[in-house]
Amino acid sequence: xxxxxxxxxxxxxxxxxxxxxxxxxxxxxxxxxxxxxxxxxxxxxxxxxxxxxxxxxxxxxxxxxxxxxxxxxxxxxxxxxxxxxx
Length: 86
Hints:
The chain has a two-stranded parallel ribbon with strand order 1-2. The two termini are about 30 Å apart. The protein is elongated, with a radius of gyration of 15 Å. It has helices spanning about 5-10, 40-50, 50-70, 70-85; strands at about 15-20, 35. By secondary structure, it is mainly alpha-helical.
C-alpha cells in the first residue's frame, strides 16, 4: 500500500485510485473507489462528485476502517508481538 492511500483515507477524503491489490481495510465500493482505465477514472470521479452523499459515506467508512485497523494501539501491540514482549 502506498502511503498516499493511508493519508487520503486517514483525513477522511474519498480515495479514488487505480484498480489493484490494496491492504486490509481498502475495499472497492465500500471504503475506496477504483478504476481500470483512464476513461473509467473520469467516469468514477464524475459519478463520485454527482452522488456526493454516497461518496461521503464511503470516505467516512474508509477513515473509520483505517483508524480501527492501523491505530497506534494496534501498531504498538503488533510491535510488542514482533519483538516478543507482552
